[in-house]
Predict the 3D structure of the following.
Amino acid sequence: ARAGEPVPAAVLAGLNAALGAAPVVGELVLDGAELTYRQRRAGRTADRLAAELAAAVAELIADPVELAALRECAAEDCVLLFRPMNPRRQWCSAARCGNRARVARHYRRQKGAEA
């Protein structure tokens, strides 16, 4: 989807199956005198988790603006995508990939200074 290609039918079928395995149900909850309406997913825990993840993916691939905002992590050995909060952000995780890149850069500088 990020490359502008149509989402394969098998992917759509898988997402729809996960969404359907734990449908959203509405319920009224009476807490003392306060009546509230809430929605929750029905089904087994694994199905509910898969449905929540499928819903997040579905919302993302259906929104061209959000999809275009995704970036690939700049770390060579990382395959993750992330949504940067800062336009200068390069890594999916500053603690993991960012730190590794800074350590490698420092090591290269130190090695160059010794030569």
